[in-house]
Design a protein that fits this description.
- With 298 residues, the chain is an all-alpha fold.
- The protein is built from 10 helices and 2 strands, in the order H-H-H-H-H-H-H-H-H-H-E-E.
- It has a single domain (87-297), classed as Orthogonal Bundle (MetI-like fold), CATH 1.10.3720.10.
- A two-stranded antiparallel ribbon has the order 1-2.
- Helix 3 (85-120) packs parallel to helix 6 (155-182).
Length: 298
Amino acid sequence: MYLTRKGISEAGIAIVKEQRQLRKEKILTNPAFIIGLAGFVTIFLAAMIIPMFHSTDPNAMAVTERFNAPSRVHKFGTDEFGRDILIRLMYGARVSLWVGSSVAAFSCVIGTIIGIYSSYFKLLDHILMRICDALIAIPGILLAISFITAFGTSSWNVVWALTIVYTPSVARTVRASAMVIKEQPYIEAAKVQGFSSFKILWKLILPGVISPLVVQASFIFAQAIISEASLSFLGAGIPAPAASWGNMLQDSKLVFSKAPWTMVAPGLAVVICVLSLNLLGDGIRDYLDPRVKGGAKK
């Protein structure tokens, strides 16, 4: 039986519609993706919108309003300097989201470059992977503190310190995926046809490592937020008086018994944000996994 041009066109449209429907079903039947995305978007929008409707300076002190419990005026109460916790929480969310996204972006870009070139050139593989192994052997928080101690405390130094911490794991993930792709027949065919190494790496191998890279980026985003909060809590992160979740937790540890709300709000913010990003990462992984259809593995 021969199909006419019109028949082929209709068949192609039907296939496209079916693929769209399958993608839609994978999203709608993926509770981790939906819950994670909803939680992350809520935090992001709150951090962007709430400060726009409040002219309160997050660092403005009002000694007469110290340790006010949550009320209609101060939804989350005030801290030991009379600063509104809700406003500081939203400005701290901006800092945490900026640090997390910057670390995820920089570590993925640098790690991808290292991983792809290591997978293709043996000499670079021996050099770069041994450097990555050495960095992975050092506890991440100690490596970050060492970097910040050497170069000083600032928001950008926190970003670069955490980028150094997470880049090796990205490089190893990309290298592992690229090594598998490099052995595929179409890569050998490209070599025979005279494709340059640059074209093979960035036109043929790179698209195959995007899926695991996107998933890992979401997890690094969450881990970077925890690490930034930990560094700030230890006094090696975002310098005061700038608001960050870690700084707020550090300030609240001495007054927790007197004003527990000063710790509850930033603590819950960290938990909800990290949990949302982890769920989002799990959802993206399931969505990109071809073995998962309609929310169940086949």
